[in-house]
Amino acid sequence: MRTSVQELIAKSKDKKSKKIIEKLIPVLLFLIASVSVLTTIGIVLTLIIETVTFFTRVPLSEFILGTTWLPFANSGAQFGIWPLIVGTLKITGIAIVVAVPIGISAAIYLSEYASDNVRRVVKPILEVLAGVPTIVYGFFALTFVTPVLQSFFPDIKIFNAISPGIVVGIMIIPMIASLSEDAMSSVPKSIRDGALAMGSTKFEVAWKITVPAALSGIIASVVLGLSRAIGETMIVSLAAGSTPKFDGDFTGSIQTMTAYIVQVSKGDAGYGTTIYYSIYAVGFTLFLFTMAMNILAGYMSKRFREEY
Amino acid sequence: MNTATIKTKINTAQPTSVEQAEKESVYSTRQLNLWYGNNHALKNIDLEIGENEVTAIIGPSGCGKSTYLKTLNRMVELVPSVKTSGEIQYRGRNIFESSYGVEELRTRVGMVFQKPNPFPKSIYDNIAYGPRIHGIKNKKILDEIVEKSLRGAAIWDEVKDRLNENAYGISGGQQQRICIARTLAIEPDVILMDEPTSALDPISTLKIEELVQELKEQYSIIIVTHNMQQAARISDKTAFFLNGEVIEYDRTDAIFSNPADKRTEDYISGRFG
What we know:
Helix content of chain B: 25-40%
Number of helices of chain B: 11
Number of domains of chain A: 1
Function (chain A): Part of the binding-protein-dependent transport system for phosphate; probably responsible for the translocation of the substrate across the membrane.
Order of helices and strands of chain A: HHHEEHHHHHHHHHH
Strand order of the largest sheet of chain B: 6-7-8-3-9-10
Largest interface: A-B, 20 and 29 residues
Distance between the termini of chain B: 12 Å
Radius of gyration of chain A: 26 Å
GO molecular function (chain A): phosphate transmembrane transporter activity
CATH topology of chain B: Rossmann fold
CATH topology of chain A: MetI-like fold
Number of strands of chain B: 10
Family (chain A): Belongs to the binding-protein-dependent transport system permease family. CysTW subfamily.
Largest sheet of chain B: 6 strands, mixed
Strand order of the largest sheet of chain A: 1-2
Domain ABC transmembrane type-1 (chain A): 85-297
CATH architecture of chain B: 3-Layer(aba) Sandwich
Membrane topology (chain A): Multi-pass membrane protein
Shape of chain A: flat
Radius of gyration of chain B: 19 Å
CATH architecture of chain A: Orthogonal Bundle
Structural class of chain B: alpha/beta
Oligomer: heterodimer
Largest sheet of chain A: 2 strands, antiparallel
């Protein structure tokens, strides 16, 4: 005997197990998703608690106003964060000066000039470049870029800000180029055609139409690159040295916030000491910087959006 | 559609153009062939396009009418794998000559597209774009050009108080007139229009058609249209394209009242296309 399809459907609908699974799935997915959120909350909480402990030992005013970072002094250790911030800014500044012009030029070339074949080859290469481990970049800075720089400018020390700054810049070029290219490629072709039909050259279209139209995406890519440069650790640990300095010197050893955290974590200080807690305070400062960058990126991309 | 109604429309709407004498040619196309890869899209086109006239190009989809229009300002070359043979003389000079820069040609020959495509900039910057890239920087002169162009495109009164607003904030019909004004801003010789009203509502369409009638005094206009009544209403001459060939080219009143070719008659009477 053959039952109708509708009857079969009704029968299977009645099955208890199916109903239970339907109810269980969202709960299960919610729990799994919660893990990542809870982990983040846990990390931030640890950071805050340990940072608060640090400030019970070192006054907040010394930390945010002090210009001397001398954590390892036997007597009279000083914890003024500015030398580490200045070190980080030196690296970030050089990186941006290197990465922004090259990254945006590459993006303009890829989106406006390159043929489909060139784009098909170059874009994956860019993305591979973004996947090179940073330790490799660090070695590259220390054993190649620094000696090359020294052969031109003998004043440059083996540990300096310029070489790792350049290499951090090289590291973020693919990111800026790739994200900016995405932004430019999504500008409608019809708008470019409109400009070409008025007798614009290709470069005028790229510079006066496509780049302004894609500006919000380009700025977002630069700010994301910036926040990666600020957080970059391996390259600066290897090639920038470990001398916190509050000055404008780029040729000698410096220290960034990240490099200081590495230095302490490697075992220069015991658990429970002020130095141990200081890495949390520095880490928290770093967190504030990158968070500010992400908020800035969001704001900029809204502010400069050209509607189309 | 009914041929008879069109006939009466032409007779009332286009009384003067019928008696007009032959005018000087702006474009002479001779033995033009065009291929997209292996697809032979235009076949042995011969056309003379007159000065200060509205020339309509009609035909079913895929007949090559848009391709031909885009060949006139060489925008068609943006499609990879396009090959051409034959020649198009613009004001006596072959536009395919290697010494003829496309930018120079496109500065003389403006284009209005099917979908309004203003730049994502303010209305003012949209109009000033052309003059600016061609080296006009003086703010006073630019102000004059912007006003004159917007007036020329019959949209000045609607946007004069919002020149600094983004051009995407106005209606589609207004955007299309902004695009026409943008083209007028560099005072071209010829204006190519690629189905300029197909994305617009009837009232906006009417405004643009009236505008074309006014612009004809100063510009030579070539308009591709799907809409046969539109061709009948606004054009002086009509070319009927089919499968990449020009089937018939004549004064608009002659084409619509007394087509010489059976296929033209079939098309304009709505039997296909």
